[in-house]
Amino acid sequence: MERIALVLGATGGVGGETARALLARGWQVRGLVRQLRPGLDPRIDWREGDAMVRSDVLAAAEGVSALVHAVNPPGYREWDKRVLPMLENSVEAAWANDARLALPGTIYNYDPAETPVARPDSPQEPATRKGGIRKAMEARIAESGVRALILRAGDYYGPQPGNSWLSQGMITPGKPVTRVTNPGRKGAGHAWAYLPDVGETFARLLDREAELPRFARFHFAGHWDPDGSAFPSAIAEAGGRKAKQVRLPWALLPLVALFNPTIRELLEMRPFWNHPVRLDNRELVAFLGEEPHTPLVESLRASLKALGSLE
User: Fold this and answer.
1) Closest by CA position to 142, among listed 106, 103, 111
2) Residues 243-284 pLDDT 10s
3) pTM of the prediction?
4) What share of the chain is helix, strand, coil (3-state, %, to 5)?
5) Rounded Cα gap, residues 166 and 183, in angstroms
């Protein structure tokens, strides 16, 4: 039986790493891009189209057994207006092909002040606008009845710049790491997810389709920084030089946010830097036997190298 997956967002972080992991496991992978261009991974069957156009998604998804919905508007532009319509197109495509719909989830579904440890079935009471949208996305998938796989994780980081705290808030891509900005409150733990590990986890789960429940939810623990200092210190170590560590000047961000939509979105996430939200991955480990886990400094060294921040 042919295993074909359509990955929406295959040029991005989660989508790109999931596509690579699926290819390594013998899947045929399709990707949807607005315009075909040089430099795209030649192993992927690229289709031209827009995730906002249902007919494009339906055409690209014909005959697939899995659909990975890892697409987001670049730079968070019109995020609240585009995210749910894009998901609706993926739901329809999954139904049309009886495919498993896989969604990368986040910790934003939870209230960080009330949920220090989150299990897959913990109550979702988001305290932010983005968290409310994330909750609505999962609810739409659940009510649709499609076969689904949701994998929630902490803040992503990895070899691609993307919308990540590492590349947009903690270091300067393209320059050696001489300074690391720490967004967290002193003593507050934080969950981090290395993108290649997340992609590998998705691929292992999709490989075991026959054993998954119709609506499957798992938590990816990733790297847990217990007091908010371990991750910045590991960045400095991976950078190979002594780096100054400074606190993020949150008080100044509202001014910058007036002109920068990405900063505006990041600013909304401040509660997650003031309160710890740790993801309980026991169900994932029980199902897979282990969680894919690249050592922290090794993962950061690979990320910094790809970001042009290693000498």
Assistant:
1) 103
2) 999 999 888 888 877 777 777 777 888 999 999 999 999 999
3) 0.94
4) 40, 20, 40
5) 10
- The pLDDT value recorded for residue 5 is 98
How far from the centroid of its chain's Cα atoms is residue 198's Cα? 8
Residue 169 exposed, middle or buried by CB count within 10 Å (0-12, 13-18, 19+): middle
AA identity, residue 101: L
Q: Of how many residues is the chain composed? A: 311
Domains and CATH numbers, the chain: 4-156+193-222+276-293 (3.40.50.720)
Q: Are 307 and 173 contacting, i.e. CB atoms less than 8 angstroms apart?
A: yes
For 96, residues 6+ apart whose C-beta sits below 8 A from its C-beta are 58, 61, 62
Q: Residue 62: what pLDDT?
A: 97
Low-confidence ranges of the chain (pLDDT < 70): 1, 74-77, 161-163
If DSSP codes are grouped into helix, strand and coil, which group holds residue 290?
A: coil
